[in-house]
Amino acid sequence: MKFSTPQSLAEIATLLNIEFLGNPDDQILGINEIHVVQKGDIVFVDHPKYYDKALNSAATTILINKKVECPEGKSLLISDDPFRDFNKLTNYFNPFIASKVSISETAIIGEGTVIQPNVFIGNHVKIGRNCLIHPNVTIYDHTVIGNNVTIHANTVLGADAFYYKNRNTGFDKLISGGTVIIENNVDLGASCTIDKGVSGNTTIGEGTKIDNQVHVGHDTLIGKKCLIASQTGIAGCVVIEDEVTIWGQVGTNSGITIGKGAIILGQTGVTKSVVGNKTYFGTPISESREKLKEMAGIKRFLKEERHKT
Hints:
By secondary structure, this protein is of the alpha/beta class. Helix content is 15%, strand content 31%.
């Protein structure tokens, strides 16, 4: 999530009322999670397991809950609760603004686009040319939709990421400040849910076709010309490369990559990253031919054991 105008390190520290280490005039351009952080960004870390990863990331500033040696060329914001303060920054620079109308006056809708009844279009949404948005679709603030996109009834674009911190008082939500990007020539089926990024984008690539009742988690990147069948559940921070085919009722772990041209057969659990141009099946996932051989071997073994008895 980028700020509308750059902020100095001192300004951010004052806003959060916390100590900092570094040049007070250093420019901060936005905030991001570790997997999408860029130069000029703040990243937060609140567990020793991930200190080194955050300190050695592309981030210019690390929001951290311990005084450590500041890496050269970077700065630190010392907080007793980085999770809380990251939420403060999201709320301050990208606050929730309640809508009063079904289609926001700040939305931009391209020529030839058809909006069916009972569609909700939030603040600062951009929709391209010649799209067809069917009834009861909900499009949250800042969503970007390209040209020639079809979205079927009851689909929701831009709901919050499923991201919580377990505290003694209950689950504390990490506020989502990212958005959803739907590129040109994408079709989305009925009752799909595509969550916004926590601080970046959830992206559906050009020409991809998604069936009914598919869920796409926060910050996931789906490439170009993919086919995803009904009741597939894709976790957050997944990378699905171009021309991947995913059949029905597939589920994935978070943070994995599915290589270009891979085919994932129905009811597979994608428990790890897989390379492209191969066909996969089963849980845990393996190449379909290997899995079928395993199943055939088990069947023979059981048959032999029955004969013994």
